[in-house]
Automatic annotation (TrEMBL):
GO terms for biological process: D-galactonate catabolic process. It comes from Inquilinus limosus. One of its GO terms (molecular function) is 2-dehydro-3-deoxygalactonokinase activity. This is 2-dehydro-3-deoxygalactonokinase. InterPro entries: DGOK, DGOK_C, DGOK_N.
Amino acid sequence: MLVALDWGTSSLRAWLLDADGAIRDEAAAPLGILKVPGGDFDAVFRQVAETWIAAGATAAIASGMIGSRQGWAEAPYANCPADAAALVAGLIEVPTSLGISLRIVPGVSRIDADGIPDVMRGEEVQILGDAPAAGRRLYVLPGTHSKWALAE
């Protein structure tokens, strides 16, 4: 089983996934990266995932601002266009007090024609979740920092 986290600026959402990717349990907390007491990300991870790991989860992955400079550990951005392989290549590994490593997905970035950077952390994983959909797609991703994204 896999612990999957969407850990943003303002909130944390977590799921326990089985080998087929089905959701077996879920949790949420208003503990975004800027609200974690003392920056103790490991304590929050333990609070959310301890029961799941005791029940057999053997891996954990996180996306979102948890991989930013203000988060648990910085995962450098992958350059756009980025596919799943680019995100896998950019995973960083963080040890936890629960005896398993947490892998953090890098965000993605692009520089526009005027040299202005645009970035996302977490939304790229949501887009990959729609990967079986064929063809060119335009996504609107509402949230603390809403985004538009084009996937081809």
